[in-house]
Amino acid sequence: MATTTLALPRAGRLREMLSFVAVGGINTGLDFAVLNVLIWLTHRDGGAWLFGFDALAFTVGMVSSYVLNARVTFRHHAGASTTLLLRFAAVSVVGLLLNAGIVLVLRMVLGSALPLPLIVNGGKLLATGASLIWNYLALRRWVFVADTNP
User: Fold this and answer.
1) pLDDT digits (tens, 9 = 90+) for 38-89
2) Percent helix, strand, coil in the chain (nearest 5)?
3) How far is the C-alpha of 66 from the C-alpha of 11, rounded, in Å?
4) Where are the domains of the chain?
5) What is the pLDDT of residue 41?
6) pTM of whole model > 0.90?
7) Taking Cα atoms as reference points, which of 94, 22, 33 lies closest to residue 60?
8) What is the C-alpha to C-alpha distance for residues 75 and 82, in angstroms, rounded to an integer?
9) % of the chain residues with pLDDT over 70
10) Is the separation of the CB atoms in 120 and 50 below 8 Å?
11) Distance between CA 125 and CA 129 in Å, rounded?
12) Host H or E run for residue 141
């Protein structure tokens, strides 16, 4: 497994983290929008439907994440290779399972204790935080290693 020393100068690391958060905001907006539109259009909000909708919404955010993080956050210029794409996909699949699993579990646990939009979106917010940490560390240390420059 390839790793990096994470020895960016302080300003470079700060730029990278701020870029990651900004890109994450864009991806999260896409993710939330797709999830809520699918629920609104179909009136399906539980079980396999919710898991599938969340997975689709996450995938839209994932594609955006790859393009924006490669170019903006990590300034990766080596181009897409099979290894890079597979690593990104592996990181994203773990993030997807973490994200959709948290949303589904909270929906099942909280049931009708709170309004559905609060449960789904609150769960999505919590899941997004967990995914954010996982994705940054994995992308930084394993995917976009070679071109991680300030």
Assistant:
1) 999 999 988 899 989 988 998 898 889 888 998 899 888 777 778 888 899 8
2) 80, 0, 20
3) 23
4) 10-143
5) 97
6) no
7) 33
8) 18
9) 90
10) yes
11) 6
12) none
Q: Please give the C-alpha separations between residue 76 and each of 16, 54, 68, 127, in angstroms, as whole numbers.
A: 12, 28, 10, 27
What count of other Cβ atoms lies within 10 Å of the Cβ of residue 103? 28
What is the three-state SS of 14-44?
A: HHHHHHHHHHHHHHHHHHHHHHHHHHHHHCC
CB 95 within 8 A of CB 135: yes
**Alpha carbon of 37 to those of 30, 74, 94, 109: distances in Å?**
11, 31, 24, 23
| Residue 147 DSSP code | T
Output the furthest CA–CA distance in the chain (Å, rounded): 50
For residue 44, give every residue at least 6 positions away whose Cβ sits within 8 Å of its Cβ, in sequence order, or none. Answer: 38, 50, 53
